[in-house]
Specification:
By secondary structure, this protein is α/β, with parallel strands linked by helices. Helices cover 24% and strands 32% of the residues.
């Protein structure tokens, strides 16, 4: 059975508009919504408080306390904190999360992670937006045993 991620056009266009405003820096938001057996329904993309001094075009940083706050705010709104979405603002990236993205998402208990590549077309002000969705995964321990 395939897992689906669904959202409204207005919620998605709001996220994309805010991400374009932050371009060429990375942009991150919390995902609130509902979880079913075979889908995640994102009802809200919510901007998170980030550490501005630790953010640049290729990184974005937020505290564990911010994720805790997002969980609480989502709960107050009768929603579920599903995870996060962030941008890779360059055509040199792809929509795959980094090892750090996976590790942090798994550590933080995220159920869902979105990665959006966003960049301007060459010789144009038009943006290209590509998106993929992932389940954050922990590292798998690897060990080579000595033979006796």
């Amino acid at each position: 059975m395939a897992i689906r991620v669904v959202t409204s056009e207005s919620a998605w266009s709001g996220f994309v508009r805010r991400a374009k405003r932050d371009f060429p820096n990375e942009h991150a938001e919390a995902l609130w919504g509902e979880e079913t057996v075979d889908s995640f329904r994102i009802t809200d993309f919510v901007r998170m408080k980030v550490n501005k001094d630790k953010c640049n075009g290729s990184t974005i940083d937020y505290e564990d306390a911010e994720l805790k706050r997002q969980r609480w705010l989502a709960q107050q709104a009768d929603k579920v904190f599903l995870g996060t979405i962030h941008t890779h603002p360059s055509s040199n990236y792809d929509t795959a999360p980094s090892e750090v993205d996976h590790h942090e998402g798994a550590k933080d208990g995220e159920k869902l992670m979105g990665v959006v590549v966003i960049y301007k077309k060459k010789d144009s002000n038009r943006f290209v937006v590509q998106t993929n969705w992932w389940f954050p995964q922990s590292k798998i321990a690897f060990e080579v045993l000595k033979e006796e």
